[in-house]
Each structure stands twice: as C-alpha cells, then as structure tokens.
Design brief:
The structure is a single chain. Helices cover 33% and strands 16% of the residues. It has 381 residues and is an alpha+beta fold. The strands form 4 sheets. A 6-stranded antiparallel beta sheet has the order 2-1-13-12-11-10, with helices on both faces. Helix 2 runs antiparallel to helix 11 and helix 3 crosses helix 8. The radius of gyration is 21 Å and the shape is globular. The model is unreliable at 1-53 (pLDDT under 50). A hairpin with a 4-residue loop joins strand 3 (101-103) and strand 4 (108-109).
Amino acid sequence: MRLPRHVLVGLAALVVLAFFALRPGDQTVPSAWRPTGGLNAMANPVGAGALQGQAVPVGQSQDRGQAMDGYLTDLMGSGRFSGAVLVAQGGQVLLSKGYGLADTMQVAPNTPQTRFRLASMSKQFTAVAILILQAQGRLNLNDPACTYLPSCPDAWGPITIRHLLTHSSGLPNYTDFAGFDGSAGQATTPDELISRFRDMPLRFAPGSAFSYGNSGYVLLGRIIEQVSGQSYGDFLRTAIFEPLGMNDSGYDDGSVARAVSYSRIGQIAFGINTTTLFAAGGLYSSVDDLYKWDQALYSDRLLPANLRNEMFTPAMQNYGYGWFIQQRSGRRVIYHPGWISGAATYSAHLPDQGLTVIVLSNLETANVQGISDQLIELALR
C-alpha cells in the first residue's frame, strides 16, 4: 500500500525530530576556518519602487510552492538541511517556512521568524550603512579611509572608502592568519581586530586588484562608528532595522536568543564569538526580516536611486558594494553567501524575473547555494 505524500512528509518530519532529540550535542572545533564568508525587483538597473516580473497566478504559485516545500522537506528528512527559506516573485510570497530544529535539546522548530547568524551576508548591511552616511553628506566614498580612522598607518594613505567596499584595498585578510582559529571564541573589540593587521604590509596597491576578505569591512564598521557617533550595532538599529520593522535583526553580541549552531545534525558547532567578525559578519536576522530588507532595497526608503544603482554595479570581479553581481544562464543574479561555524546563509535576487530567494541555515554543512539554485529553477519553471 502506497501512503499519500502528506503522510510520508509527516512521518519524515517526526523521524527527524526524534533523531535530533536523541542525539546529544557536543563541542567540536572545526579543523579549518572558512571565512565568507521576499521580493522586489529592480528597474534597469534599479528603479525607485519599481517591480519587474508579473505576479504568479494563484494556482501556479501554489504548485511551485508545494514543489519547493517537497524538495526542502526531503532535504530535511535526509539530514542535509535545517533552517528557514523564503521565496517570492512579483511581489508575492511563494514559500516562507522553517525546516528542522532551531534547538534540538528543546525540540524548538525553525520558523520564518527564527534568528540565524548571517555571517558574510552582514556585508550588505555594512555597505548600505556607509551609503546612508554618504546620502546624509557625512562622508564620501572617494574620501581616504584614514580621514575617519585614528592612528592610521602611512601605508593605508591611498586607501579610499570605495576600495574597502569593493575588496580592492590590498589589506591582508586577518581571518586567514594562523592564529585566528585559536582566538575565534573570545570576545574582541573592533580596535583589537584592527591591531591584528594594522602593521601588516598591503598585498597590492589599492585599486589595482580584487581580493575578497574581512579586514576592509571591519574598517568600514569603525568608520560608521566614528562618523555617526554610535556603535556599529546601534547605528544599524536606528538607521535600518527599526525604520523597516526588522525586529528579529541586530548585531550578535551574544545577548539575544537565536538558532543553535550545528556542525552536523545534533552536534553543536564550535562556539565562535561573532565580535571577532564585527561589521564583516556579525549580524543575525530572520527570513521574514530579510524580505522586508529586500523590499526596502529597491525603493527610496533607505537610499536614493543613484546610490542603489552604484551599489549594484560591479566594480572588480563582479563585486559591487556588499554584493556579487553575475550573469548565470542568461539571468542577472545579485547575491551573497555567508559561512560561519554552525551557520550557512545565502540570498539571491533576480531583478529581471522579479525573484528573491533567501536561505538561512543553522547547519554549517548545508549547501545553501545549491539549494538556492534549485529553488530558482523550481520558481521559474
């Protein structure tokens, strides 16, 4: 006798819940550190408040949502995904749902409101915060970074804020240093982070090459603090999160409850302290909040159209300000991944198709880019 699909899905979920509850977590330190790291579409390239893509007919949207839900449920059942996902097209949410558990010991399920560490997806918020300060006339992207950084070394003299945004400053990436793993669990101030690479030689002349890393975005966080007179977390809260009603987003200083981080199903990941990433990877959010963020990015709520256009224009190696921009299979994709011990994250925006996919996982082994790519295909089939 063949059971109906909804019964199979329910049984799979129960099996996963039981598996999680029976597996005690333990502490493990990853052998290698890997730094990383809804919907409103853009006009050409970004139109104020404009949406591209037609709304999906109700019946078709239900079919697509069910197909995506079935795919993700299968991943959850096989232990390959735990987290939350939101997919939207043409201003219509096709799927917004949690999978697996936010806390295996408490048997607390993931939901669209669950808070996850964003890892390097945080960079898009840091970039927008800088652009907000430019829109307010308080800095300029062509300003030397040292204008806003106390005790700036001479070697940093040619580095501009724009170089920091586009990973073209030449700064060495401090999370690649041999001693980083050993200190990653300790609370660290921004100035202590900067001291790790302050006296290191530049890898190349500013503006001459691209090298993705975290050091430049740590400096951007300090510039935000110097110019605004607020801490990095407070400025993002007052300038972005509160105005957009993003109540489940903020700077992860360890004081807010969020999804427990797992290295594999039922095994708690090494407890990295995200103050060691600061403005390069220290934020948390939910898929519901990131949909609000997504909608605001393509309107005038945070930035004027000229700065949004600039943000989504590739500078070097397909990187704009806090985003990668690429052509894939004839589609323009604006995206950013994130990876941290115990979390994997990814968001992709296809402006011409009016499609947004947000994948947040508290399982570090989740293939979030592969999941996003499959969801895009299911949404556009």
